[in-house]
């Protein structure tokens, strides 16, 4: 359960919260299981916060600092995380169905079996992120940066990866059926046993890519 004092501080408004964070840099905010549904937390500092199992449905977290925050098992459906910083955050098994993460920074973020179905991820930064088993079906990853990310067994069914940079990414046993990979950079990508049935590969760079056992038609 969330720390009542921390939750009250947050409910008093982001300005007061920001001042408290500045004056107490060594305190880790405990907002575990907090109900923050629909809250306006634009630009807030939640770095290192425990938000595991929190209700953040339709919450505005755009431009928020969530560096190294724990959001495992959190409910983030329809949340706005545009331009948010989630460097090394834990989003394991979180629900981000239809969430907006355009321009968000998820570098080295942990997204094990995270649900990102139909999420907006335009220009997102997933460099070095761990997305094993994540659901990205119908997600919009246009111009996304996924270099050296782990996308093994990820579901990218009908996802839009137009112009995305997946250089050095591992997509072993990934589902890319009917995905749009037009003009994507897949140089050096490991697509072993991946399913690319019906995928749009127009202008794709597959130089040095591994396609052992991949299904292409």
UniProtKB/TrEMBL annotation:
<dbReference type="InterPro" id="IPR001646">
    <property type="entry name" value="5peptide_repeat"/>
</dbReference>
<dbReference type="InterPro" id="IPR051082">
    <property type="entry name" value="Pentapeptide-BTB/POZ_domain"/>
</dbReference>
<protein>
    <recommendedName>
        <fullName>Pentapeptide repeat-containing protein</fullName>
    </recommendedName>
</protein>
<dbReference type="Pfam" id="PF00805">
    <property type="entry name" value="Pentapeptide"/>
</dbReference>
């Amino acid at each position: 359960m969330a720390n009542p004092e921390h939750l009250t501080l947050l409910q008093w408004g982001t300005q007061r919260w920001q001042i408290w964070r500045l004056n107490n840099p060594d305190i880790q905010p405990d907002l575990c299981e907090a109900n923050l549904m629909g809250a306006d937390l634009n630009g807030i500092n939640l770095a290192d916060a425990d938000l595991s199992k929190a209700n953040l449905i339709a919450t505005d977290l755009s431009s928020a600092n969530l560096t190294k925050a724990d959001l495992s098992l959190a409910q983030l459906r329809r949340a706005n995380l545009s331009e948010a910083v989630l460097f090394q955050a834990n989003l394991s098994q979180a629900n981000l169905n239809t969430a907006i993460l355009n321009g968000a920074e998820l570098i080295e973020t942990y997204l094990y079996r995270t649900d990102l179905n139909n999420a907006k991820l335009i220009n997102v930064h997933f460099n070095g992120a761990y997305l094993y088993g994540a659901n990205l079906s119908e997600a919009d990853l246009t111009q996304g940066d996924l270099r050296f990310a782990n996308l093994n067994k990820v579901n990218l069914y009908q996802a839009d990866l137009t112009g995305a940079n997946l250089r050095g990414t591992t997509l072993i046993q990934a589902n890319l059926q009917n995905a749009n990979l037009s003009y994507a950079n897949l140089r050096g990508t490991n697509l072993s046993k991946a399913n690319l049935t019906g995928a749009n590969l127009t202008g794709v760079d597959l130089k040095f890519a591994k396609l052992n056992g991949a299904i292409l038609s």
